[in-house]
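Deviation from plan, reported transparently: nicotinamide-adenine-dinucleotide complex.
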Amino acid sequence: MTRRFEGKVVLVTGAASGQGAVEARLFAAEGATVVAADVAVEAGEALVADLSAAGRRAEFALLDVADEHQWEAVVADIEARHRRLDVLVNNAGVGDGRGIVDLSLTGWDRVLGIDLWGPVVGMRTVAPLMARGGGGSIVNISSIAGLTGYDHAAYTASKWALRGVTKTAASEFAEHGIRVNSVHPGAIMTPMVAGMPQEAIDSFVRLNANRRVGTPHEVAWAVLHLASDESSFTTGAELVIDGGFVPAGAGRALELASATAKEGA
Ligand SMILES: NC(=O)c1ccc[n+]([C@@H]2O[C@H](COP(=O)([O-])OP(=O)(O)OC[C@H]3O[C@@H](n4cnc5c(N)ncnc54)[C@H](O)[C@@H]3O)[C@@H](O)[C@H]2O)c1
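Because the crystal trials were delayed, the predicted structure below was used instead.
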């Protein structure tokens, strides 16, 4: 059976860790040539070495997504060596735990530079190459913070905005055969979440309809679906992968509050 991404070239940002690393592995297993881009050189090169040892096609690219010149260099290199780019997963992201009153302009600029400007300049840079190849698919990793009033202000702003510009890009690039969709993970057990206080992780578990956090694979399989021709009529859409946190979280909070009230009565 032909693998789903045989002959395709896939660029994943933030591929050295967490969800990006799992996505790189799954794309490679499905036959893609994966360009694993990250600022974390050692971990990125280790991933690529591991994939190559397993007979997969993968290469590492040093890319700080906030830097448009680095984007231009990486995409020019992909064009020179592969002549095409079929998929971009804008996965790189950083968190910042501050609310509005604690924000600094430096912190704000850092988060929006990586989490918002990064994907935007990425889309802008890859679109001409994708268009020359007849089209492609871009998957932007937003968050449930892009659907709610999450208490991390800069992160929330960037993820809401990424959700919006995904729809702008879907409209702008449609004539070139490029689809653009956003994915909104809930709490997923990666180094980003593992670094949170245990009480915050426990709250996610308590309020989640599924009563657990998700795995990187549970996001990655959905990313592959949106990247593949299986989703050829899907563009400008948002796919929430949160175990029911957004739809059921408020109901769960009420349920828990009334159970606590009954216990105390
Ligand atoms: N883990 C979660 O619960 C969760 C929930 C919702 C959304 N997300 C989003 O999913 C994406 C992946 O997160 P993760 O949980 O796998 O995190 P992670 O911290 O494990 O991985 C993030 C990767 O991005 C890389 N990175 C950071 N800054 C970069 C930059 N400037 N340029 C290139 N690479 C950079 C890091 O080196 C790292 O390899 C992020 O966009 C994150 O906001 C995560």
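The chain has a mean pLDDT of 96. We consider this an acceptable substitute for the interim report.
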